[in-house]
Amino acid sequence: MNSTLLLCIFLCACINGRLADFDNLQDTCPTATTGEQTVFINGFPCKNPNSIVASDFKSSKLSIPGDTDNFLRSSLTLDTAEDFPGLNTLGLSIARTDLEVDGLMMPHSHPRASEMFFVSTGVVIAGFIDTQNKPFQKTLMPGEVFVFPQGLLHYCMNDGFEAAVVFSVFNSQKPGVVKIADAMFESHEDMMNKLVRKIKSVAAMEVNGIQNVTQPGF
Length: 218
Hints:
The protein has 218 residues and is an alpha+beta fold. It has two helices and ten strands, in the order αββββββββββα. InterPro entries: Cupin_1, Germin, Germin_Mn-BS, RmlC-like_jellyroll, RmlC_Cupin_sf.
């Protein structure tokens, strides 16, 4: 009986240990700049502790607006340990989303991370779709936060009269991105227009007090 209990505890510990990025085994581990990669590890090599400096833990990458001069009028800037050394081994990455008026970020998912989505400026519709094809969507004002669960398709759209800026935090050093924007047999414009109509339809139901209704073909 005791051996069975110990085995169960051991297995649970192993499973829990695989649910997130590996914990850091030292105080800090800023990414070391390397040439051609010859050894592949789950993360990046650490700098020599004697060469770590305060600037390793600061990034200005997200202070620069992204380029929204494109069909979707949107831009995503991702900051990971590859560019921001201090993030290495912390299980974190961050991003900035810029949305012009009517700008849209097409449905996508992050297979290795959940996302905390914080609206800095503007009015943004944000939502995700669960495995039962049910949308969960809200209109967010500046200062409000929404959460996208790991692996689920999610999207956002500017619903205001000014450019919107959103900052996100991911609980993975490298969240990954899976996009559906290039679906076959349908033009980018047709897909975008259909999605905008569905998003606004769900937003209208929210205003009328109807929430989280399954929409066929969402």
